Automatic annotation (TrEMBL):
Keywords: Repeat, TPR repeat
Database matches in InterPro entries: TPR-like_helical_dom_sf (IPR011990), TPR_rpt (IPR019734), Ycf3 (IPR050498)
SUPFAM superfamilies: TPR-like
Native source organism of the sequence: Pontibacter fetidus
Keyword Nucleotide-binding: no
Residue ranges of the TM segments: none
Intervals holding TPR repeats: 68-101, 136-169, 204-237
UniProt-recorded name of the protein: Tetratricopeptide repeat protein
PROSITE patterns noted in UniProt: PROKAR_LIPOPROTEIN, TPR
Domain of life: Bacteria
Amino acid sequence: MHRLYLHTSYLKKKIVPALLVIILATFAGCNLNQGTGEQMVNLAKVTDDPEAQLANLNTAISRNRQDASLYVRRAKILLGKGELPMALDDVNKAVELNKNDMGNLFLKAQVLRAIGKVKEALPLALRAERNSFQHVGVYVLLSDLYLQLKQPQKASVYAAKALKLAPRNEFALYYNGRVAEAIGDTARATRNFRLALQEAPDFAEARRELAGALINQKNYDEAAMHLDKAMTLVPKDAMLWFYRGQLYQQTQKGDSALWSYNRALGFNDSLQLVHYRAGELLYARGDNAGAIAHLEKAAREYGHTVKYITMLASAYERTGHNIKALEQYQRLDALQPGYTFADQSIARLKAKLTRPMPAASAEPDTATINE
């Protein structure tokens, strides 16, 4: 039984780290089992001595360029190595040679997902599933794609299908937990993550998300234990460092929290949530310039929220960026008409910006001085 590995998302969006093996599946009776990093297949059998396999496949393809299965096998190895453009070229050739093989479409969807082209991967995975390519792998992939597209209700449909087909499969359990997490059902999420870990104790992502859920439940001691275990498996996982920072922040260890957030951003600077929390922490400390640097990078995810706009506007004003501050207060007023704080801030800044500049002092009469 092959083990399928999915590289996140959450993460949400992203370059493929060496420590995370990307989605890779074999299609004859394949099932999901274990992995690290939002993963989908254990490459032990398909990539033992991958360089030798690649050499053999290169020779085979040079002799027979019309065998789609050879391109599929090479695409899987390239995908496992993170050589995504080459993997995509091979799977495109396989699809061209055999348009009716839904497994080829599924593999292409996985490659596109690994590249970050979620919207392009989705219709291919759906087409494969709707043409009787129905197994745990495709259901897990669809659940993951819908979660990335922020459609948890649709993700839940496919997570449930995966669990029905394989009730003890750790990926089916994990994605049911992810769906529950997305809709705010922390208790169900925690239960599913625990069950996933019973099936695969080294499933680092399940342990990571369990730690996050436990932090939200204020179960800090158990959360710390799971974070420590997960970090022995994937020490460069950005979200693990984020959760560690969150744990420190909630236990009033601000310096350690900020250090952890910076570690997370060192591994993945695109994580909006981490920038937001770092900005929030710096703003509370009165480091307005530092807060601005992080908050500006969190605008895509949080720019429509009252708390975010309020913090950014206030930080701008405190650092003398009055026009930027005014723009943010006006956005806040549009978001919450009649909000007294926003109205007062707008009036204050308009008065400050329209106040006449003090007259420049007269130049001294140098002739008189010389005299």
